[in-house]
Amino acid sequence: MTASTETLHLQHADHQAHAGAEGWRRWLCATNHKDIGTLYLWFSFTMFVLGGVMALGIRAELFKPGLQFWQPELFNQLTTLHGIIMVFGAIMPAFTGLANWMLPLMLGAPDMAFARMNNWSFWLLPPAAALLVISLFVPGGAPAGGWTLYPPLSIQAGMGMDLAIFAIHLLGLSSIMGSINIVTTVLNMRAPGMTLLKMPMFAWTSLVTAYLLIAVAPVLAGAVTMLLTDRHFGTNFFKAAGGGDPVLFQHIFWFFGHPEVYIMALPAFGIVSQILPTFSRKPLFGYVSMVYAVCSIAILSFMVWAHHMFAVGLPATAQLFFMFMTMLIAVPTGVKVFNWIATMWEGEMSFETPMLFAIGFVCLFTVGGFSGLVLSIAPIDIQMTDTYYVVAHFHYVLVAGALFSLFGATYYWLPKWSGYMYNERLGKLHFWWSMIWFNVTFFPMHFLGLAGMPRRIPDYPLQFTDFNSVASIGAFCFGLGQLLFLYNVISTIRGGVGKAPAKPWEGAHTLEWEVASPAPHHTWESPPDEALVKKGLRAQSLEHDHE
Ligand code: HEM
Ligand SMILES: [Cu+2]
User: Against a cut of 0.90, is the pTM above it?
Assistant: First the structure.
């Protein structure tokens, strides 16, 4: 054998070792960031369907007053599981999946920093999801005290609670490992020329989100571990009868919980900051101020937790502090919304599906932001706490915010992932369908809340009937529309409406569009040429606008 064929042969064997695993092994033993990204995304979609079916179970019960389908116990379990599954199973893994798929491509890195740990981060998720589902079938059923797991209910609950606690431990471990990977990749593996302040916004938001997670996932783990020892090992952290304090749990939970809402929002900001410039054919307006805004939001998010607790009887000074700190977050958030609008301003906009979802995001996330400001006013919140106004508020930021950004991201990058173009008409139909029915579902909930309808109840007084029926009809239509999305994605993977070029969006300038579509299994094994990096960066930066 000549030297060169031997090298070839070796390279081939090497290649086999990396990419050769076929069938289930390819996925179980996956270490490739693209495979792991794909796993995350499909897992997330599965959880979205599961949590969605539970939401429809809730909405079916609430279509009219009286008990139709579920006993109150099961209703509360559905509500709780819906919340936990959507937050930890659908939204968070989707963002980690996107970060896995896109960060190495966007930053010019060959893979994520810790490929094997990456495998673990993903494979902890399915057992956690299984535990949550199994909890429905154990004596006492699933946790039913709400996704916030407040004691005393969470201490009194049956063994389903223990399964959920274990699930949360696993989910937390997964998040921490995923975050360590993201931080290390972003900080150490960028291509030459890609300085921190030249990174695409999605890299910035992923980085900051990962730091947030590393900071608060252990706090949640601590809180649920204290619950566990209160339940089984004789401690009294939260048990009033033993001298403990249930309100302490709320403080710890929300010290995690508020940063958590930004963990679900910041990556969405990043995605939208990629999509809007592309389809406005202009650089992102105010890039540096965007970075500062993301960082300030992240820092402030640690100082507002007790706005979830205005009704538990905080001292007036504490209420004032948390009220003003919360309002302060509106400043960097306002900067971001301003920049997004300024990015579109006088741009040569076109309205492909990703752009529609991004614009939908900007409009509806702002609505959710405003209802959040209303709730931040302590005397108002004391009236509104635990009403449907709160449910309306957080679904505006989570569904029209986080979820819409994920739909946008999927349409935006699907050509890169699959190598095929999706059906634009179906995509647009999916957008308008979702946009309309989302609002039909959730807008009336503001009125229900203002009128005093409490959340987490299976039955309600007659006066709330009309808006509830409207919301339920909206929810079923919204749910149905998601089949369009699934159909469009699957048919795209199977060939779609034709092959996608490397760069299907002429206005896009980031590095992922420099590799072929579908992105080959291995990309940027040697870092991209510095000139190539600079070319994209120049197009992203303001000085070269409007030539
Ligand atoms: C897309 C269709 C969705 C519908 C129709 C829907 C509907 C509902 C309903 C009816 C409730 C119960 C409100 C209550 O009784 O307190 C609820 C609670 C909740 N939802 Fe959704 N939801 C949807 C999507 C999502 C998504 C994507 C998230 C993402 C994180 C989410 C997060 C939550 C949370 C955290 C709760 C609170 C659970 C609790 O009270 O413990 N939902 N949702
Ligand atoms: Cu909060």
Answer: yes
